[in-house]
Amino acid sequence: MAVPALEVRYVSKVYEGKVPHRALDNVAFDAEDGEFTGVMGPSGSGKTSLLNLIAAIDEPTSGEIRIAGTALHSLGSHEAALLRRRTLGFVFQHFHLLDTLTVEENIAVPLTLEGISPGRIGARVREVLERLGIADIAERRIDAISGGQMQRTAIARAIVHRPALILADEPTGNLDSRTSGEVMRLLEAVNREDRANLLMVTHDALAASFCHRVLFIKDGRLCNEIVRGSHRQTFYQRILDMQSLLGGERRDLPTTRG
Ligand SMILES: Nc1ncnc2c1ncn2[C@@H]1O[C@H](COP(=O)(O)OP(=O)(O)O)[C@@H](O)[C@H]1O
Ligand SMILES: [Mg+2]
Q: Do 73 and 178 have their domain in common?
């Protein structure tokens, strides 16, 4: 049997402090190969904490996470950095692009870090530019393009090195609804065509309706899961219903962490 792309085994995260805070409590799920999983939950429910653990940016207090069979706790900090660079791709709400570089330079970053030859980098970057429909802005600087173009560039950068798992934290959080729809269709295509695994945190029910299934967390616990059937519209409605049941689905303020 194939190794799951992602295994989250009974993971808890306690932030120590004057008053220790249990941000995640015994969270367990797997993502099978090629799956597009959504994670939803009220503000403060632990979504970003979960992504940080999966990204090996932070360590669980207990429990275990495996990515393509590799246990994250077995990695030293250098190996964890390599895993982030080679095996993972990231898409963020605030894009995290380098403003003074051009679109194509930003996309090339993950390949440049790997020491791949300029010729091969150029060919691969062009391929991704075409695919995301941004070839015409390849030479523009990030500070001269729109939000939708920035998120396309960020997605291009996240897939250019063919990662096994793409992590997205509120990828449509700063986009209008039309641009959100375009970005979600691109992520859906990447998932389908590359069989790339995607794990996406979102507040946006419409964005979540592009997933195969959505996990809901509340107060650090997985509390529900909805699987998409054949109708996206029905799935969307069920996501909305679950959101209002759980309450507190307001957007994080843009100034809050992660
Ligand atoms: N580094 C940290 N130190 C202490 N508490 C934290 C830290 N990061 C997050 N928290 C707390 O953990 C809880 C979950 O936060 P977070 O994972 O950011 O939730 P979400 O992304 O769902 O809004 C919140 O109560 C938050 O205040
Ligand atoms: Mg968050």
A: yes
What CA–CA distances, in Å, run from 64 to 8, 138, 233? 6, 41, 35
> Is residue 169 domain-resident?
yes
Residue 12 lies in a domain: yes
Matching residue, tokens 């809050």: 256
Domain count, the chain: 2
pLDDT tens digits, one per residue of 114-150? 889 999 999 999 999 999 999 999 999 999 999 999 9
pLDDT (tens digit, 9 = 90+) per residue, 94-117? 889 999 999 999 999 999 988 899
Handedness of CA 140, 177, 231, 249 (dihedral sign): positive
What whole-number distance in Å separates Cα of residue 57 and Cα of residue 59? 7
Residue 175 located in a structural domain: yes
Question: Dihedral of CA 46/52/57/62: which sign?
Answer: positive
> Residue 155 falls within a domain, yes or no?
yes
Residues with CB under 6 A from ligand 1: 15, 17, 21, 23, 41, 43-49, 252, 257-258
Pick the atom of ligand 1 nearest to 41's CA: 22
**1 CA to middle of ligand 2, Å?**
34
User: Which amino acid residue places its CA nearest to atom 11 of ligand 1?
Assistant: 23
Distance 44 CA to ligand 2 centre (A): 7
The set of residues, in sequence order, having a beta carbon less than 8 Å from that of 128 and lying 6+ positions away, is 107, 156, 159, 160
